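re: ur question from yesterday

yeah so i grabbed the chain u mentioned. its 229 aa long if i counted rite. heres the sequnce exactly as i have it in my notes:
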Amino acid sequence: MLLLAAGRGTRFGGEVPKGFLQLGGKTLLERSAERLRRLCPEPEGELIVLVGREDRTTHLAPLMGALHALSCRIVDGGTTRQQSMQNGLAAASANCDVVLVHDAARPLFPLAAARTCIERARAVGASLLAIPATDTLKRCRADGTVEATIDRRGVFYAQTPQALRRDVLARAIAHAAEHGIEATDDVSLAEAIGCPVEVVTGSPQNLKITHAADLAVAEALLRHFENHA
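ran it thru and got these structure tokens back, copy pasting raw so excuse formatting
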């Protein structure tokens, strides 16, 4: 399992990288790591946390005890998502057959769907959590005027976790490096080499913390989960 927390979260704003923001008394990184451990307890799952090198002695240092208790390995991330994935894959054990990639900024992902995602990746090569688009979609011109209304049938919003067989991910990363491909999500790399990618229905509650308002929504969802556990 690769837990990506090297991003700076520029859209969120502020000086604290997004993975180190607080949600209910713990950082997003801690909550995502705990949830991944519930998904794959030891010794079944190896948990590698990708962080910015510059964060090791600052934001990460106070969390090392909690991450050690979860048996996390800390690896330096890259300047892009793809580089972080490549660093994580290089650090993963040779006997790992499926690589699960998850964003620290999604601390409330559904466990059952994530387990299915792993199973489907093992079967077909790659899989991701996603939810059907429910809003009307507009394609706009550079000046902000509408060019077309897009048929939302068959359109999904991608989420994480995303899972890929190790051999698929290795080939996909090599292909991307050779052809200068920079993907915004992980299974896009598998798509680029013609590997089947299967969608597993995720959850609207698996929101990504992108803006300050998202954190308030996540706080409310967290309280709901805790009160109905």
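noticed a couple things. The CA atoms of residues 40 and 46 lie 8 Å apart. also Residues 212-227 form the longest helix (16 residues).
anyway ttyl
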